[in-house]
């Protein structure tokens, strides 16, 4: 039923995984003294950058990103600006969350922020790519009946895997094993990345095995129309309505 | 007042129609909660099951011994029938001794096997021992040296200096410091003026503070550091030896032990270390003089992985090497030499060789080959002969045994009398022999040795052996008790419905089995061991309970055919795999690792935070966090439309999110109140933990004091405000009196007490007497107020104010008036803001039912408004907890006031999160099915209890106990032990007690918050139903008691699972390096915390039941007798 999407998704994920791999290998070749544990921050940035660039490129090329009705340059620029702002805010949000979870407040603020950047590029960026800079839609996606396409389901799975991975990654920190990967934030970032990679594999697989049962209810189009079109009005509402309509059309075509 | 009247009337009008539920169930007003006495009894039974399990396990695991704080003196060792000679001033065999302790020197390390051509790294590395023993057999011996478990360094040092069998809990006078108070070698040496020089492991310094002539301790904490201690010793050892200012030199090398922990014995580093030790022994031997004895020994062995602590042969068998430049032994090694030397035997031998009295509590036996036989005594230089040594030894051991058995009763009486008889026989025989001047028979020597051995064996059986059978029984009983709690929590409704019939049989059978076992023991052994009787009773009760549950389940299934009743699927996997249970499981699993136990405060905060964050995420996943939108299908009637308005949902979710924020914030802030364990080297204890009187900087002091007082004020205000908000401060009962007067008075007392105790002693010289008096009186006054308040709450828990309205106003209105109403405010503003007319429907119903016959009375009867009826259950509980908290705050350092404020905020936030989540869920589904409290808030509640244990500066270690609590109100100390012990216990387990007592609030709070909800809901056309708040509980007494039972059993389940995990950790890891340092203290704290929590849960539930009784009586009084 969703064969086309699943194939596209699998290849996208393969590209993403490959980019993570390359982001680890390439600096090791070119930068002297590079190692995942030793120069952890460098590795973090390289992975974040790779995932960011590849996701944006792939999702743009695939056209999953909600199309905009207005094609004016100003509108596009404002969208871009808002995306960047959300990206940065999300970094701050993750930083705060991680500090609340027990990360040192001042001592290794740079490490914590780098972890926040990684988490953002693995989760928020995907939201940005799939749903656009629309926080209402983000919140809506993470509910039981909130997914409106396979891409939304995929988003749910990868984000959940990444966050859970980072959460589990904090477990070994208090252990007295004195391993290099127990140093803050190595285990958490590794956990997040492994969670992300697991999500990349799990999402197409899960969708493939449940493709018979996956139905994205039409009611949600009306839901969207209702919520955003009627209640919010304005640009966001218009845009969301567009998204819903596009999805609807898309599904019909399938 | 007119405005209010109008408002009241309008509400009266809206609340006119009778709610639907009433028609279904009709009950008499004074029906109390069904099975309420059963509830408390049942909880007590469950708690006692847990207690039996814990008692059994502790009996098998914790080896307890009383310390005898008497010391031997030189006069004790007089020879019989001789002139009093001062034993200590006769010339001893050796003037000086060098004690070299090589930590974890296993016997295998010291033995040399020349036929072994390919030695492993730890074999054949100490050739010096073999060389000397073979070349100078009269001068030296190598023995296997048998240590008693627990084979940890501190216990071993205690063992071979006191000669007793130290256990984990040596109940002595000072629990706070680790100094040895029992009589010991070091003390005796100092007593007769020998200069003891110590170097090495710094454990000695804490064990023998100020006992050494010279002391060179080196840090022993870092197990990874192989060389600091050893090199430190080596820099000083030889120079000290060649100098002349020492009599006894103790050097404790740690390298071998650390090498074992780090690399294991089978590692090249071990070879290097042992070779180094070989060199040390050689150089020491070269420097020995003729009057000096050399003892080289290991304190314990190690397993193949390099660990120790347990009781396997590899851990217990160390090496003992004795050497002296003058002949030490009467002959070369012979057949009758001991195969193995118990570690306790070193103490009497060394004592007699050095000419000091044997330490009082030593149970060792002199090493006979070290003393000359009786016939050679003249030839040998000085010192006692074999028989004399044995006699002195036996006399000392007998004296100790008598003293100990008069203090403690843990040695079996038949054995004790047997030993006493044996000593009497030996003593008369010896005295006869010596008196007649005959040469002693070899039998006498042998029977003296046998006597000493049997004493040691008896003591060891009592003090130094785990009892695996008891441990296993304790574990099984605990596991079953946990399971039983779970089953009970799932079956609570069924149980209450049938009035707990099913639980009577197990209780009766348990009693019968217990008595049977006791009688059986009495018949077979002649005495009763209480532990096993209890175990049998508990196990039989649990098994019978499970059997009856299983049987009724099958019966139900058989009756109902294909459709099983609702509660039979209680153990489905899906219901257990929810995140709250997962978090609880993670918490339990974390108790099995020493690192997590060390970092427990952070681990618990992390888990609590995760669960808190999970709550809104999960609500959002269910689509409940955001208001559902306008839906064409729903509005067209295709889907059932739930009665909720978007604005209301939005309000609830913003409350929820705000509370999550508050909770997260207070969690984060509470991290700064943690104390530090010694294992956490980098950690700095919270500055708020230091009492004000110890702060030097006066500005800092003022700041801290101001902060504390402000938070105390805020605390009191918040509590009072909460009570006032729900109209609980209007009547004139005992509880209200407490809230109005005792609460503020208590906090004033507290603030004054802090001020007084923070005053430096020399600042107001002329006021010194007064300050002293205030220090004594203020806390005692606070204690009295506290007791009075608690007593008043229990005596008269109702906080309901009845306002009789003038009948005239009722007549003026043509509308039908409700006769009873519960409102929350009394002041006009409060009434305007929080006007919740609560009509107690059931009661009104019963009145209405009676009315047709006496219809004319309607107008004559006064209308009654009851203020605070909506929070009739929670208000006394809240007040009770508030008073308790203030009392506990009194026992804490002043800075903890901030932490307690955070505790209140966190409690409130948790309750509100729970209430909002319940409301949001309740709005979605049509009927939630009783007042059941889900797992998530209960798990959060129990995690918060542990979290605040840490956030009030406590840690599960003995040094971190806040002993100063014992002196609050008793600045001059105590005479007994009960008062200080209970004060310290209240201080330590404050958060456990508070959270457990206030546990029923979880049941009440969603109902309390309903007030808010239904006012919002009414706008959406809520069928005019009133906010009945907690009166809902009275309408469904069955559901109320079942929900209360479920809540408390769930809480007990979570607590029980934690204690079970801790117990399992101690059982599984009883050979672990950290068992006596981390797991055993944790177990003790966890067990004590559990006992106090469970008792507090019972207290909380009993208080609720007490309120229920009072409410029932109140209603009875309210309804005039004529209307029946």
TrEMBL record, chain A:
<keyword id="KW-0256">Endoplasmic reticulum</keyword>
<keyword id="KW-0337">GPI-anchor biosynthesis</keyword>
<dbReference type="GO" id="GO:0005789">
    <property type="term" value="C:endoplasmic reticulum membrane"/>
</dbReference>
<dbReference type="GO" id="GO:0006506">
    <property type="term" value="P:GPI anchor biosynthetic process"/>
</dbReference>
<feature type="transmembrane region" description="Helical">
    <location>
        <begin position="183"/>
        <end position="207"/>
    </location>
</feature>
<feature type="transmembrane region" description="Helical">
    <location>
        <begin position="12"/>
        <end position="30"/>
    </location>
</feature>
<feature type="transmembrane region" description="Helical">
    <location>
        <begin position="112"/>
        <end position="132"/>
    </location>
</feature>
<keyword id="KW-0472">Membrane</keyword>
<protein>
    <submittedName>
        <fullName>Phosphatidylinositol-glycan biosynthesis class F protein</fullName>
    </submittedName>
</protein>
<comment type="pathway">
    <text>Glycolipid biosynthesis; glycosylphosphatidylinositol-anchor biosynthesis.</text>
</comment>
<keyword id="KW-0812">Transmembrane</keyword>
<feature type="transmembrane region" description="Helical">
    <location>
        <begin position="153"/>
        <end position="171"/>
    </location>
</feature>
<dbReference type="InterPro" id="IPR009580">
    <property type="entry name" value="GPI_biosynthesis_protein_Pig-F"/>
</dbReference>
<feature type="transmembrane region" description="Helical">
    <location>
        <begin position="42"/>
        <end position="63"/>
    </location>
</feature>
<keyword id="KW-1133">Transmembrane helix</keyword>
<feature type="transmembrane region" description="Helical">
    <location>
        <begin position="84"/>
        <end position="106"/>
    </location>
</feature>
<dbReference type="Pfam" id="PF06699">
    <property type="entry name" value="PIG-F"/>
</dbReference>
UniProtKB/TrEMBL annotation, chain B:
<keyword id="KW-0472">Membrane</keyword>
<feature type="transmembrane region" description="Helical">
    <location>
        <begin position="1051"/>
        <end position="1069"/>
    </location>
</feature>
<feature type="transmembrane region" description="Helical">
    <location>
        <begin position="897"/>
        <end position="917"/>
    </location>
</feature>
<dbReference type="Pfam" id="PF01663">
    <property type="entry name" value="Phosphodiest"/>
</dbReference>
<keyword id="KW-1133">Transmembrane helix</keyword>
<feature type="transmembrane region" description="Helical">
    <location>
        <begin position="603"/>
        <end position="621"/>
    </location>
</feature>
<feature type="transmembrane region" description="Helical">
    <location>
        <begin position="529"/>
        <end position="550"/>
    </location>
</feature>
<protein>
    <recommendedName>
        <fullName>GPI ethanolamine phosphate transferase 3, catalytic subunit</fullName>
    </recommendedName>
</protein>
<dbReference type="GO" id="GO:0006506">
    <property type="term" value="P:GPI anchor biosynthetic process"/>
</dbReference>
<dbReference type="InterPro" id="IPR037675">
    <property type="entry name" value="PIG-O_N"/>
</dbReference>
<feature type="transmembrane region" description="Helical">
    <location>
        <begin position="503"/>
        <end position="523"/>
    </location>
</feature>
<keyword id="KW-0337">GPI-anchor biosynthesis</keyword>
<dbReference type="InterPro" id="IPR002591">
    <property type="entry name" value="Phosphodiest/P_Trfase"/>
</dbReference>
<keyword id="KW-0325">Glycoprotein</keyword>
<comment type="similarity">
    <text>Belongs to the PIGG/PIGN/PIGO family. PIGO subfamily.</text>
</comment>
<feature type="transmembrane region" description="Helical">
    <location>
        <begin position="776"/>
        <end position="795"/>
    </location>
</feature>
<keyword id="KW-0808">Transferase</keyword>
<dbReference type="GO" id="GO:0005789">
    <property type="term" value="C:endoplasmic reticulum membrane"/>
</dbReference>
<dbReference type="GO" id="GO:0051377">
    <property type="term" value="F:mannose-ethanolamine phosphotransferase activity"/>
</dbReference>
<feature type="transmembrane region" description="Helical">
    <location>
        <begin position="41"/>
        <end position="64"/>
    </location>
</feature>
<feature type="transmembrane region" description="Helical">
    <location>
        <begin position="989"/>
        <end position="1008"/>
    </location>
</feature>
<feature type="transmembrane region" description="Helical">
    <location>
        <begin position="871"/>
        <end position="891"/>
    </location>
</feature>
């Amino acid at each position: 039923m969703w064969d086309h999407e699943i194939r596209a998704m699998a290849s996208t994920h393969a590209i993403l995984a490959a980019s993570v791999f390359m982001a680890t290998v390439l600096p090791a070749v070119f930068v002297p003294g590079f190692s995942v544990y030793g120069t952890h921050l460098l590795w973090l940035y390289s992975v974040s950058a790779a995932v960011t660039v590849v996701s944006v490129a792939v999702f743009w090329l695939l056209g999953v990103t909600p199309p905009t009705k207005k094609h004016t340059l100003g509108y596009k620029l404002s969208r871009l600006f808002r995306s960047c702002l959300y990206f940065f805010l999300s970094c701050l949000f993750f930083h705060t969350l991680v500090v609340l979870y027990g990360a040192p407040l001042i001592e290794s603020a740079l490490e914590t922020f780098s972890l926040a950047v990684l988490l953002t590029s693995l989760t928020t960026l995907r939201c940005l790519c799939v749903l656009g800079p629309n926080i209402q839609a983000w919140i809506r996606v993470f509910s039981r009946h909130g997914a409106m396409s396979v891409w939304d389901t995929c988003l749910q799975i990868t984000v959940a895997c990444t966050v859970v991975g980072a959460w589990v990654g904090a477990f070994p920190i208090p252990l007295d094993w004195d391993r290099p990967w127990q140093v803050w934030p190595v285990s958490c970032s590794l956990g997040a990345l492994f969670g992300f990679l697991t999500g990349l594999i799990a999402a197409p697989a899960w969708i493939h095995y449940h493709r018979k049962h996956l139905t994205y209810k039409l009611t949600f189009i009306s839901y969207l129309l209702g919520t955003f079109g009627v209640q919010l009005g304005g640009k966001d509402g218009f845009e969301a309505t567009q998204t819903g309509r596009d999805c609807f059309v898309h599904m019909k075509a399938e | 007042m007119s405005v209010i009247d109008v408002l009241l009337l309008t509400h009266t009008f809206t609340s006119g129609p009778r709610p639907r539920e009433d028609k279904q169930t009709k009950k008499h007003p004074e029906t109390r909660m069904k099975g309420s006495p059963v509830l408390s009894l049942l909880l007590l039974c469950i708690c006692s099951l847990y207690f039996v399990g814990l008692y059994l396990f502790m009996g098998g695991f914790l080896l307890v011994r009383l310390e005898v704080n008497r010391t031997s003196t030189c006069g004790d060792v007089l020879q019989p029938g001789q002139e009093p000679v001062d034993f200590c001033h006769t010339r001893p065999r050796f003037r000086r001794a060098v004690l070299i302790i090589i930590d974890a020197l296993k016997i295998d390390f010291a033995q040399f096997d020349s036929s072994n051509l390919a030695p492993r790294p730890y074999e054949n590395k100490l050739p010096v021992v073999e060389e000397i023993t073979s070349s100078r057999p009269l001068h030296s011996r190598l023995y296997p040296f048998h240590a008693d478990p627990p084979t940890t360094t501190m216990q071993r040092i205690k063992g071979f200096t006191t000669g007793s069998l130290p256990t984990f809990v040596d109940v002595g006078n000072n629990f706070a410091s680790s100094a040895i108070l029992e009589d010991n070698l070091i003390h005796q040496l100092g007593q007769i003026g020998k200069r003891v020089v110590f170097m090495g492991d710094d454990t000695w310094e804490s064990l023998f503070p100020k006992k050494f002539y010279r002391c060179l301790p080196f840090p022993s904490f870092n197990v990874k550091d192989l060389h600091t201690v050893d090199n430190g010793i080596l820099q000083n050892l030889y120079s000290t030896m060649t100098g002349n200012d020492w009599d006894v030199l103790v050097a404790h090398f740690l390298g071998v032990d650390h090498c074992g922990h780090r690399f294991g014995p089978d590692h090249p580093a071990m070879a290097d270390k042992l070779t180094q030790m070989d060199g040390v022994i050689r150089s020491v031997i070269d420097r020995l003089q003729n009057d000096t004895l050399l003892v080289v020994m290991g304190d314990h062995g190690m397993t193949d992985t390099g660990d120790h602590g347990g009781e396997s042969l590899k851990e217990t068998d160390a090496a003992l090497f004795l050497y002296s430049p003058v002949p030490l032994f009467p002959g070369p090694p012979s057949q009758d030499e001991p195969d193995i030397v118990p570690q306790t035997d070193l103490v009497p031998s060394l004592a007699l060789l050095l000419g000091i009295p044997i330490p009082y509590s030593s149970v060792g036996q002199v090493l006979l080959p070290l003393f000359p036989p009786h016939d050679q005594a003249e030839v040998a230089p000085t010192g006692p002969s074999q028989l004399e040594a044995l006699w002195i030894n036996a006399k000392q051991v007998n004296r100790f045994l008598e003293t100990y058995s008069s203090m403690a009763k843990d040695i079996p009486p038949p054995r004790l009398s047997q030993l006493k008889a044996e000593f009497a026989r030996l003593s008369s025989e010896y005295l006869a022999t010596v008196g007649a001047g005959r040469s002693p028979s070899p039998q006498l020597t042998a029977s003296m040795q046998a006597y000493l051995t049997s004493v040691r064996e008896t003591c060891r059986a009592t003090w130094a052996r785990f009892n695996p059978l008891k441990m296993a029984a304790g574990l099984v009983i605990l596991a079953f008790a946990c399971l039983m709690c779970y089953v009970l929590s799932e079956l609570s409704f069924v149980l209450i419905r049938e009035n707990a019939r099913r639980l009577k049989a197990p209780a009766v059978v348990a009693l019968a089995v217990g008595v049977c076992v006791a009688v059986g023991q009495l018949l077979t052994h002649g005495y009763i061991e209480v532990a096993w009787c209890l175990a049998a009773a508990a196990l039989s009760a649990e098994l019978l309970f499970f059997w009856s549950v299983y049987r009724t389940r099958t019966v139900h299934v058989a009756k109902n055919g294909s459709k099983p009743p609702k509660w039979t699927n209680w153990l489905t996997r899906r219901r257990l795999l929810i995140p709250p249970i997962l978090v609880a499981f993670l918490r339990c699993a974390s108790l099995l690792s020493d690192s997590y136990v060390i970092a427990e405060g952070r681990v618990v905060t992390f888990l609590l935070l995760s669960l808190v964050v999970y709550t809104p995420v999960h609500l959002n996943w269910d689509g409940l966090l955001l208001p559902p939108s306008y839906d064409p299908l729903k509005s067209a009637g295709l889907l059932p439309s739930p009665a909720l308005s978007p604005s209301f949902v939005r309000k609830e979710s913003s409350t929820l999110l705000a509370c999550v924020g508050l909770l997260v914030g207070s969690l984060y802030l509470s991290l700064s109140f943690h104390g530090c364990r010694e294992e956490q080297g980098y950690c700095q204890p919270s500055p708020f933990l230091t009492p004000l009187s110890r702060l030097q900087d006066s500005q800092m002091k003022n700041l801290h004091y101001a902060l504390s007082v402000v938070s105390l004020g805020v605390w009191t205000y918040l509590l009072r405000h909460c009570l006032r908000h729900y109209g609980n401060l209007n009547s004139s009962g005992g509880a209200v009196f407490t809230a109005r007067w005792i609460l503020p008075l208590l906090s004033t007392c507290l603030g004054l007490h802090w001020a007084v105790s923070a005053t430096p002693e020399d600042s107001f010289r002329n006021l010194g007497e007064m300050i002293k008096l205030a220090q004594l009186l203020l806390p005692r006054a606070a204690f009295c107020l506290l007791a009075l308040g608690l007593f008043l709450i229990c005596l008269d828990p109702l906080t309901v104010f009845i306002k009789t309205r003038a009948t005239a106003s009722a007549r003026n209105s043509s509308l039908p008036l409700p006769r009873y109403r519960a409102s929350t405010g009394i002041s006009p503003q409060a009434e305007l803001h929080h006007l919740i007319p609560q009509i107690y429907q059931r009661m009104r119903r019963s009145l209405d039912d009676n009315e047709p016959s006496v219809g004319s009375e309607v107008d004559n009867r006064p209308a009654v408004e009851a203020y605070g009826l909506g929070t009739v259950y929670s208000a006394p509980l809240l007040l009770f907890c508030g008073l308790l908290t203030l009392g506990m705050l009194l026992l804490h350092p002043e800075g903890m006031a901030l932490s307690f404020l955070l505790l209140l905020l966190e409690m409130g936030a948790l309750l509100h999160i729970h209430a909002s989540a319940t409301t949001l869920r309740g709005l979605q589904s049509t009927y939630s099915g009783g007042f059941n409290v889900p797992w998530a808030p209960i798990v959060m509640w129990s995690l918060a209890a542990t979290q605040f244990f840490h956030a009030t500066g406590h840690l599960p270690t003995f040094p971190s106990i806040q002993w100063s609590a014992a002196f609050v109100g008793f600045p001059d100390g105590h005479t007994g032990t009960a008062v200080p012990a209970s004060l310290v216990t209240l201080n330590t387990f404050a958060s456990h007690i508070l959270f457990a007592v206030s546990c029923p609030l979880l049941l009440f709070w969603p109902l309390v918050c309903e007030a808010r909800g239904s006012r919002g809901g009414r706008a959406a056309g809520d069928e005019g139903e009133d906010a009945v708040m907690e009166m809902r509980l009275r309408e469904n007494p069955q559901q109320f008691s079942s929900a209360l039972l479920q809540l408390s059993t769930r809480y007990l389940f979570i607590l029980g699972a934690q204690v079970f995990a801790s117990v399992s950790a101690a059982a599984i890891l009883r050979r672990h390096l950290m068992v006596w340092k981390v797991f055993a203290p944790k177990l003790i704290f966890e067990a004590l915390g559990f006992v106090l929590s469970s008792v507090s849960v019972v207290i909380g539930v009993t208080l609720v039941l007490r309120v229920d009784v009072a409410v029932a009586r109140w209603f009875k009084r309210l309804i005039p007798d004529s209307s029946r």
